[in-house]
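step 3/5: co-fold with pyridoxal-5'-phosphate
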Amino acid sequence: MSQIFVTPRLFTPGPTPVPYATKASILHHDLYHRGKEFAQILEETRQWLAPIFGTPEPPLILTSSGTGAMEASITNFTDIGEEVLVVKGGKFGERWLKLAEAFGLTARVLDIPWGHKPKSEEILAVLVKFPAIKHIFIQAHESSTGTYYDLENLLPKIRQTFQGFIFIDAISSLLAHPMKMEEWQIDVVVAGSQKGFSIPPGLSFIAASPRAWNFTTERSAFYFDLKRERREQRQGQTAWTPATSLVEQLHFNLALLVQQGGVERILAHHAHVAQSVRHASQNLNLALFSQAPSNSLTALALPEHLPASRITGYLRQNFSMNFAAGQDHFKEKILRFAHLGFVDIFSIISGFSALEMALKAEGHEFEFGEGTKQLMCSLTSSMS
Ligand SMILES: *Cc1c(COP(=O)(O)O)cnc(C)c1O
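step 4/5: write tokens
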């Protein structure tokens, strides 16, 4: 039975919900991207992005989805024919691989079973076997499986011997997991607007280390000529017409973030919410899919007789709620409940309780209501 008066809701790992005030923040005027006001907004926004990336130099803001920034990182900071290592533990590791291949890199692949995080020994073994490897491409969080790669522990071990560039796709981890680009000696970090930042899709971000900026490539570039873009953005300008309405919404959200206690507080919020959801999930008679679950989303493993599309379909048709199933060979075997972005605990509770209702309606056996009760208890304990 479909419900009346419902608002469509997103519990997907991108796009994430955009707060009403954020959407409303762009209604009052039209903005000219060559004007002073936009220059100021751009400058302030880039300054606010820097601590989220853990870099002193403000990241560039590009008009594209996250994949555009991934592509730009390859075309600006690598050269044709270079040998690289791609860590592939799901759909997005696969994307690095496809991009590497599309741009003439020789990719050595470390295949990680879906739902597992890579071990430093495994990466180091590939580096020993292929000493010509110049760069490493890896995710911070593999969104297809809800697995966090624990960069704070992984990268120092790799940096003990590896001197090349490290490229991180942090698109779905920023603001849910710390990113300390400079401290962890990362060369390139890419991110996107429609994940932790809770604005609509259409912007991507890229930050690079001083030595990456000093790298000169033989490749040609035009739209994604990052050195040109960097010159422009340092002047409060962009090389091309930017998505002004998105930059303005990002500015609004980052101002809110600063006002609410900054990066540390939002990281703590995500950690607390994710931990509470994982804990509550123990009452669903479903296992967690990931061996290293992230703070961005919780991936539940579904039994054979309960395909994910039945649950996502039920939630969509009856409650107008969007949840993500799995991807590829795990499409029907994983249900992903995202708790990423500017989302309050009451949205989390409503999403989780709706999930329980859907599971019950689809005949799954478990202690109905116990999970939601547990979730409410966990979320109210040690509230920051
Ligand atoms: C969403 C996402 C991307 C980028 O996808 P776009 O659709 O291009 O924005 C890349 N990597 C990860 C880990 C993601 O979650």
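step 5/5: annotate
The chain has a mean pLDDT of 97.
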